[in-house]
Every structure is written in structure tokens, then in C-alpha cells.
Write a structure and sequence with these properties.
Layout: H1 15-37, H2 41-53, E1 55-56, E2 59-63, H3 67-79, H4 82-98, H5 102-126, H6 148-165, H7 171-194, H8 200-241
Antiparallel strand pairs: 1-2
């Protein structure tokens, strides 16, 4: 290949990366829109209506549905708890180090730690109080917007799913590794509203922001690898030319 063909080595965006970029921008846009609308009467009425609809009209302390649904809600909310997510992060990071994949281990740690820090900073800046419409079914102590459980479950599970999706070439398996973590984080988010500790918009904001942040980090790594591969290919071509 001559030097005039070097332009063919420019890293191109793959379809999955373009879709990821679109989802990242969509998530960021939805988050900004929710922040902009926060506090408006119509949005507040919507939030309160949804929370009340999940409780018995005669007793707001009792959630709708049979007892097993309440148990499921507690189980799902635990999947987004900081104790569970921290344990998963530590175990995965340890495994990756044992497998001598330090770059992937660092990726998991950086995405998780910065995501958590971003969640805490935004909670402090926006300072939305927790809903006090119905009695809480879970102990909480932080502010409400965005939902930390929703955001961090999306960050951790989706980041791990995206990392695993890079290890397979089968489209169906790649799709599974994206849909499964999104489903888990959606269930976590629903459980927070069901327990009365978050408004629906808290959950939506956290979920989309978590998706956006996870995709941002995944795309950054993908583009860095693409440019690295191009540089290596160019070096090989230059060595052949000399």
C-alpha cells in the first residue's frame, strides 16, 4: 500500500458506535430537559400522581399489589444499592487484574467512581427534597434528584455489559449484553418509586444520565483504540516503505 492510500486507515465510526453516540446525546438531552422542567406545577403533579397511584387509596402506607410484589421491590432496589454495586465492582476489578487486564479493570473503577461523584454533586446542586407524599418503605438519607440507585445501577451494569459485548462478534449476544443491564436498572428505578422514596422524574433523570455517562466512557475507549490501531498500521506501512 502506498502512502497515498493512508487515508483508508482513518478510524471510521461503526454503526454500533454511532448508535451509542445517539443514545448518549439522547440521555444527556432528556436529563437537561428534566432539570429545566423541575419544579414546574405540571411536572410536580405528574410525579405525585404516579406515586399515589402505587398506593392503596384507603391507606397510603400500603403499596398496591400482593405481598410478593413488595418483596420483589425490595430485592430489586437492593440491586441498585451501593453495597451491592460496590461488591460487584470490587469483584470484577479483582478478576480483571487476576486475568492481567489492568486497562479494563481501571475502566470499571474510573467509570464507577466518577459516576458516583457526579451523582452526589448533582444531588447537592439541585437539592430536591425527597417526596413526603406517602410513607417510605426504604431507609434513605440523601437528596432526591437524580436517583442514585437508578443512575449507578445503569452505570455499573451497562458498563459491564458493554465491556462484555466487546468480547463477542455475535449481534444477538451483543444486544443481550446491553438489554439485560438496562432491564435491571429499570427494575431498580421502578422499585424506588414503588417504595415512595423517589419521584418518577428522579428515576428517569438518574437512569438516562447513567446511560449517557456509561456510553460516554465506552465511546471514549472505543475511539482511543481505533486511533491506536491506525497509528500501529501507519507505523507498519512506513516500515515497509523504508
Amino acid at each position: 500500500m502506498g502512502s497515498g492510500d493512508s487515508t483508508n486507515l482513518q478510524p471510521r465510526w461503526k454503526k454500533t458506535e454511532l448508535f451509542g453516540l445517539l443514545m448518549m446525546m439522547t440521555g444527556a438531552g432528556i436529563f437537561v430537559l428534566l432539570v429545566w422542567q423541575l419544579g414546574t406545577p405540571s411536572l410536580q403533579r405528574f410525579d405525585e400522581t404516579v406515586i399515589r397511584s402505587l398506593r392503596e387509596a384507603s391507606d397510603l402506607a400500603t403499596p398496591i399489589g400482593p405481598e410478593w410484589i413488595r418483596e420483589l421491590a425490595r430485592d430489586f432496589t437492593a440491586l441498585g444499592g451501593y453495597g451491592v454495586l460496590s461488591t460487584i465492582t470490587i469483584l470484577v476489578t479483582t478478576f480483571l487484574h487476576l486475568e492481567r487486564r489492568p486497562a479494563r479493570a481501571h475502566f470499571v473503577v474510573v467509570v464507577t467512581v466518577i459516576g458516583y461523584s457526579l451523582s452526589m454533586v448533582l444531588k447537592a446542586l439541585i437539592a430536591r427534597p425527597r417526596p413526603h407524599i406517602v410513607p417510605w418503605l426504604s431507609h434513605v438519607h440523601s437528596l432526591s434528584f437524580p436517583s442514585g440507585h437508578s443512575m449507578m445501577s445503569a452505570v455499573v451494569y451497562l458498563s459491564l455489559g458493554l465491556m462484555l459485548s466487546d468480547l463477542t462478534s455475535r449481534r444477538l449476544v451483543k444486544t443481550f449484553f446491553v438489554v439485560a443491564p438496562l432491564t435491571i436498572s429499570a427494575l431498580v428505578g421502578f422499585s424506588r418509586v414503588y417504595m415512595g422514596v423517589h419521584y418518577p422524574t428522579d428515576v428517569a433523570a438518574g437512569w438516562w444520565l447513567g446511560i449517557s455517562w456509561s456510553l460516554t466512557c465506552w465511546l471514549a475507549v472505543r475511539r482511543w483504540r481505533a486511533f491506536r490501531d491506525v497509528r500501529r498500521a501507519l507505523m507498519i506501512e512506513n516500515e515497509k516503505a523504508t
